[in-house]
Amino acid sequence: MNYRIATFSQISQVSKSDWNHLAKDAGPFLQYDFLHALEQTGCCDSETGWEPCHVAIFSDDKMVGAIPGYLKTHSYGEYVFDHAWANAYHQHGLSYYPKWIAAIPFTPVTGARLLTHDKGLVTPALLNDISNTLQTHTNSTYDEALSSMHWLFTSQEQQALLTQDSTNLVRHAVQFQWHNYNYSQFDDFLGALTSRKRKDIKKLRRKHQEAGIHFSYHTGDDIQTDTLAFFLECYQATYLKRSGHTGYLNDAFFSSLHNTMRNNMLIVVAHQDQQPVASALFFYDTTGLYGRYWGALKEIDGLHFACCYFEGIEFAIANKLPLFNPGTQGEHKILRGFEPIYCYSNHQLFEPAFANAVAQFLQQETQHLANYFNQARNALPFNQEFVPLLKTTRVKHPNDDTHNHNEKNYEI
């Protein structure tokens, strides 16, 4: 295929219909309106260190591939932590920034990063041409060298394609995700848990009911301006308390999404004695439910778990959604029925000595992660009858030839 690669400093320079055609079934965060809202409200620009540098691939003037990309001058808001790599560069008199990332800003949700309907498009030759195009663009536009390229939270299928290029190093991470095993109601989910954990969850929910706490769901046109305003008050108050600032995302961003994507938004509001006290914002489509932001104006024991996890599970079951990704980190999710899953990122560092050092580091890190994954898998609260149905399975350490014949092991 003859193709042409171009970079764009604003997603508005690309056709919305063409972008969304390529992003069909890729999840809510890769839709044009989500990425456009980040740019038009100033959440992603050169001043925030998230300068848009999207890539489009054309064949006969038709856009056949697109990549949400950003030139970064820091490593915040990515959830794939490479600060140590940046420090190592600095200690050796080299600059780690700018770097280029293919990612959804502030959103650690796995998915396609090269949007295309042509699986044969992703070849080592194309990846090399994309790399050369981005390096040339950075050198000519900013008179600076690009240190590296990073594909964050790639789908398993795409990370396999990316590693056709041997210079793309794979990094693993572990998140926790709830799977819908064709539950009809929340009690079906509880029935899959051990007796002790089932009683714990029922006890917490009963405690909240006795304290006058109940929850309301708001989607689509039912998300009124006052509902969104209350969520923002909770989100910013909690962010300020924990981090000393009101968050990366501003009021204008959420208002923009309310205008363009409210049919993909769920706001859960927790009330106590008819007074709203906490709120959580989720996104959803046919691919699943994604918990993103939360805040509370009142400290109530267990309310975070109830509002952000259990109500999300209720919604996913009621709407027959296949999965619920509640966000990154948090071993506390395990005992609430969220299974460990592997996430992938791919990294290409253009300085050979550092690329070799990072490759060695990733090999050691992956061995530790495999052990962590298995420990998390063993801690799941499902009863023995249900365990064979689980999506996750134990994994063995890479390059480990030892084998326990009492367990079924898989390479990651």
Characterize the structure shown.
This protein is of the alpha+beta class. It has 2 domains: 4-173 and 342-370, Gcn5-related N-acetyltransferase (GNAT) (Aminopeptidase); 181-321, Aminopeptidase. The chain is built from 11 helices and 14 strands. The chain has helices at residues 16-22, 32-40, 83-91, 124-142, 156-162, 186-191, 195-210, 225-243, 251-260, 303-318, 352-378, and strands at residues 4-8, 50-52, 54-59, 62-67, 69-72, 99-102, 148-154, 169-179, 213-219, 265-272, 275-285, 288-296, 323-325, 339-349. Strands 2-5-6-7-14-8-13-12-11-10-9 form an 11-stranded mixed sheet. Helix 4 links the parallel strand 6 and strand 7. Helix 2 runs antiparallel to helix 9. The model is unreliable at 397-412 (pLDDT under 50).
Classify the fold: give the CATH topology of the largest domain.
Aminopeptidase
* Spatial separation of the terminal alpha carbons: 33 Å
Helix content: 25-40%
Q: What structural class do you assign from the helix and strand content?
A: alpha+beta
CATH architecture tag of the largest domain: 3-Layer(aba) Sandwich
Major sheet description: 11 strands, mixed
Q: Strand portion, in percent?
A: 15-25%
Low-confidence stretches: 397-412
CATH superfamily heading of the largest domain: Gcn5-related N-acetyltransferase (GNAT)
- Rounded mean pLDDT is 92
Overall shape: it is globular
Q: Rounded to an integer, what's the Rg over CA atoms?
A: 22 Å
